[in-house]
Design a protein that fits this description.
14-stranded antiparallel sheet, mainly beta, 240 residues, 4 helices, 43% strand, 14 strands
Length: 240
């Protein structure tokens, strides 16, 4: 049996912590439900390191994220290599996921999404945001572009009224709202490019992309599970 790293790569990226069956709400959940709230996120840069250790046929993956600690300095990020992480942690699988930029305004989080475990990668401090154990089938199946994955988390992603959102709509009518854009595939991608991003996307038959300005606040609530997918540029979206 050969473990397909390129296949699992897309699954790991979609797992985002930090990056969720979601409930759509036009108002935020009560503040008391969440242990942590972070605002002013729109277009804020962050990076992630995901590494896994194999235990027989299972793979435990830890997801570390810079959010709340730093903006993932470019000069340090460029020096970080998968080989260095593999050596330091005895990892059998590593993904360097970034740089990425948030497209929402606020994140509220609870449960295991909130913790104080930290590690340093090439001098970049990151918090542990999630740990997942993958069985053999998940490792082999991985994920495809424009195909949703179930992400375990308790969060509310909030978008202010009067701000733009970027949405993919499936042939079945499911709408996915962009939660972050990525410079992994296109290192020159900027938020100013997002309204016309359809020109760069390889949309499957029946899929559409559009930008619109919200006339009221939008809150994407995940009460334990969210559906998240990625496009061909590694931008991430959560289903409404």
């Amino acid at each position: 049996m050969t473990f397909q790293k390129s296949t699992f790569f897309s699954f790991a990226l979609a797992f985002l912590l930090l990056c969720s069956m979601p409930v759509m709400s036009q108002t935020s959940e009560p503040k008391s439900k969440y242990e942590k709230s972070v605002s002013n996120l729109r277009n804020q840069r962050y990076c992630e390191v995901l590494y896994g250790k194999r235990n027989f046929l299972k793979l435990e993956v830890k997801v570390f994220n810079t959010q709340g600690l730093n903006l993932c300095p470019e000069d340090q990020w460029k020096t970080l290599t998968k080989e260095a992480v593999e050596k330091a942690y005895g990892a059998s699988f590593v993904v360097l996921n970034g740089p990425r930029y948030w497209t929402m305004d606020e994140i509220q989080a609870a449960g295991t999404t909130v913790n104080q475990t930290k590690e340093s990668f090439a001098g970049i401090e990151m918090n542990l945001r999630a740990t997942i154990e993958l069985g053999l089938m998940k490792q082999l199946m991985g994920s495809k572009q424009f195909s949703p994955n179930e992400i375990v988390r308790t969060t509310a992603f909030n978008y202010k009224a009067g701000t733009p959102v970027y949405e993919l709509t499936s042939p079945a009518g499911d709408v996915y709202v962009m939660q972050s854009y990525s410079q992994i595939v296109n290192p020159n991608l900027l938020m100013s490019d997002l309204p016309d991003l359809a020109k760069q996307l390889k949309l499957p038959t029946g899929w559409t992309y559009k930008s619109r300005v919200l006339d009221q606040e939008l809150s994407l609530v995940a009460n334990g599970i969210a559906y998240v997918l990625q496009d061909n540029l590694s931008n991430s979206y959560q289903r409404r």
